Amino acid sequence: MGWAEFTKDDDAPIAGLRAGNGPPVLLLHGGPGPGFDYLRDLAEELAEENDVAWYQQRGQAPSAVDGPHTVATDVDDAQRVLDALGWDRAYVVGHSWGGHLALHVAEAMPDRLLGVLSVDPLGAVGDGRWPEFDEEIFRRTPESVRDRARALDELTTKGDADDALALEGMRLVWPAYFADPEGAPPMPELR
Asked: Residue 58 pLDDT > 90, yes or no?
């Protein structure tokens, strides 16, 4: 499997991988930001019986790194990928943020979907539980950096943090997103 440029738009290229034969399945990774490598094993398993494509969402090379970074542009990017692959209809499977995005894709273009699977669609249901989620992340963050992580989160939420501070905050809480924070993989490089 090698990288394929799914869209040829010079302003916002979208690149990913494709493997297998069978019904079309579009995988959408979580994040946004960390990338799609963690879905590789799932994609390879699905490719045994399906034509599977998964792409690096906007913000991660080799896809477009620059914004805008909105739900609308992410839905548009998914549609552009479906078009570029020549898929009139496909199953869409998303995890975490990708699950949230899959629901938006389903709403925006229901006629393009054979089905949708949204796995752990963080925040997708609008149930107002973000404060509880954030509190759990901070609780799981090591005490030695917890205050700094909270301060950086507040700055980022207010729009007062530059990219370096926002990334520092993400690095501090990254391990808390895993069942075993001490065994968490390193955070991918973000741009």
From this structure: no
